[in-house]
């Protein structure tokens, strides 16, 4: 029955005269409504795909080169498409800081809101390139490196520049409403480690892993905040984070962990589609409050329909016995720690990715220390 209810919700938002304009005002002093062209397009992104194969979201390094290029291209094409002002990528990004996001942070709906947001974004990507999915970035792969900023993740083949303005890779020289796209990796907070993930998975109900109830050690929102701040610049603030494509692969991993948590719940005889806390903190996180996205309610975020009908996750890469590469040419196994690690950029050659020996830690050739720019005082910070 919950699935039926949410099907109806998805159908409702397809009505041509559907109008969420009344709710769409900015949190900034401008208080402007969403552009009608954006509203029309946004409505078209609420749909359930036909029954059939689920989309498969893989770890970013597990994509084939063609899949990865398709993923990058779909995002670049959204950024170039100005049929929705200022462009489709930025319009979608704005949902994360307008009053469409009042229930997105600081409470149990953190997980459901971002799940819906990723599906909308993925639907938009697939308008540009058929069949692309959002990969997830397992940030524990970078965690524990002496210098995560030298990971292949920040090479031109993947997300590009780790420190300073992004001048390398598929999103080089992007502009955002919060200045040129930039990063400042590794100067504050931290990535997630395997103990963090074990701690989350040892918990039982959503209240154990979300605000306002969860202690820091098992609080998935707090742990995710640390990763945001660790990446720096746009990613470090709620209002600007979604303008960096890293946002979507980071959140896909958080969503992956939640789905693992839900699978654990089922194995323990609990129904994740009924697990919404009674104590929610902020009123915006009440189960019957608007999610801010279409006609969905907060409670719809815990529905099973997303991973029954839309997508599933491929497992995180692990060390493969009798092999060295964790199943990707961009990863290798550190057998001493039994963990997959990324290839590390070599300072002598931008394409020297085929290291097979021990992981070496050297400065990448494009590293620019101290090149970070700072932002003015924004209103929103990742706690
Ligand atoms: C912002 O928009 C809302 C909804 O339309 C309205 O109630 C409110 O008065 C507006 N605030 C300002 C400062 O214009
Ligand atoms: C996308 O996936 C569908 C369903 O699997 C398939 O029929 C179609 O050919 C694919 N399109 C491309 C361009 O790969
Ligand atoms: Cu967010």
Question: Concise description?
Answer:
This protein has 383 residues and is mainly α. The protein is built from 10 helices and 8 strands.
Word description of this protein:
The chain has 383 residues and is mainly α. It has a single domain, classed as di-copper center containing domain from catechol oxidase, CATH 1.10.1280. Helices cover 30% and strands 6% of the residues. It has ten helices and eight strands. A two-stranded parallel sheet has the order 1-6. α5 packs across α9. The chain binds 2-acetamido-2-deoxy-beta-D-glucopyranose (2 copies) and copper (II) ion (CU). The site of one 2-acetamido-2-deoxy-beta-D-glucopyranose has 3 residues, from loops. GO terms for molecular function: metal ion binding; oxidoreductase activity. InterPro entries: Di-copper_centre_dom_sf (IPR008922), Tyrosinase/Hemocyanin (IPR050316), Tyrosinase_Cu-bd (IPR002227).
Helix and strand run: HHEHHHEEEEHHHHHEEE
The count of strands amounts to 8
Number of domains: 1
Whole-number mean pLDDT? 85
Helices and strands in order, then pairings?
Layout lengths: L1 H11 L23 H9 L10 E3 L7 H16 L7 H7 L14 H20 L34 E3 L9 E2 L2 E2 L1 E3 L9 H8 L18 H12 L6 H4 L4 H22 L37 H6 E3 L17 E4 L4 E4 L41
Parallel strand pairs: 1-6
Antiparallel strand pairs: 2-5, 3-4, 7-8
Helix pairs in contact: 3-5, 5-9, 7-9
The chain binds 2-acetamido-2-deoxy-beta-D-glucopyranose (2 copies) and copper (II) ion.
Structural features:
globular; copper; 10 helices; 383 residues; binds 2-acetamido-2-deoxy-beta-D-glucopyranose; Tyrosinase/Hemocyanin; di-copper center containing domain from catechol oxidase; mainly alpha; 8 strands; binds copper (II) ion
């Amino acid at each position: 029955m919950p699935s039926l209810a949410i099907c109806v919700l998805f159908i409702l938002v397809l009505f041509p005269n559907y109008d969420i304009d009344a709710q769409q005002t900015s949190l900034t002093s401008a208080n402007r409504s969403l552009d009608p062209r954006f509203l029309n397009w946004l409505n078209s992104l609420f749909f359930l795909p036909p029954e059939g194969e689920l989309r498969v979201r893989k770890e970013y390094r597990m994509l084939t080169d063609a899949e990865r290029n398709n993923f990058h291209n779909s995002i670049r094409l959204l950024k170039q498409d100005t049929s929705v002002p200022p462009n489709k990528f930025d319009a979608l990004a704005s949902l994360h800081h307008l009053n469409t996001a009042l229930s997105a942070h600081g409470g149990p709906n953190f997980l459901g809101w971002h799940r819906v947001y990723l599906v909308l974004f993925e639907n938009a990507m697939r308008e540009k390139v058929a069949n692309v999915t959002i990969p997830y970035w397992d940030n524990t792969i970078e965690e524990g490196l002496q210098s995560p900023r030298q990971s292949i993740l920040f090479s031109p083949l993947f997300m590009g520049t780790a420190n300073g303005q992004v001048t390398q890779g598929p999103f080089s020289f992007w502009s955002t409403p919060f200045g040129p796209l930039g990063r400042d990796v590794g100067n504050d907070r931290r990535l997630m480690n395997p103990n963090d993930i074990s701690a989350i998975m040892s918990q039982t109900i959503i209240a154990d892993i979300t605000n306002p109830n969860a202690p820091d050690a098992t609080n998935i929102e707090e742990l995710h905040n640390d990763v945001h701040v660790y990446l720096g610049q746009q990613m470090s603030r709620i209002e600007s984070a979604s303008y960096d494509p890293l946002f979507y692969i980071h959140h896909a991993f958080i969503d992956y962990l939640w789905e693992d948590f839900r699978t654990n719940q089922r194995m323990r005889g609990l129904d994740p589609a009924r697990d919404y806390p009674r104590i929610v903190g902020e009123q915006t996180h009440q189960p019957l409050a608007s999610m801010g996205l279409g006609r969905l309610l907060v409670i719809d975020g815990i529905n099973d329909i997303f991973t029954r009908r839309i997508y599933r996750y491929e497992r995180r890469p692990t060390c493969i016995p009798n092999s060295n590469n964790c199943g990707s040419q961009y990863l290798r196994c550190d057998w001493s720690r039994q963990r997959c690690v990324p290839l590390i950029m070599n300072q002598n050659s931008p394409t020297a990715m085929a290291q097979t020996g021990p992981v070496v830690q050297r400065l990448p050739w494009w590293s620019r220390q101290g090149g970070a720019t700072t932002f003015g005082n924004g209103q929103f910070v990742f706690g």
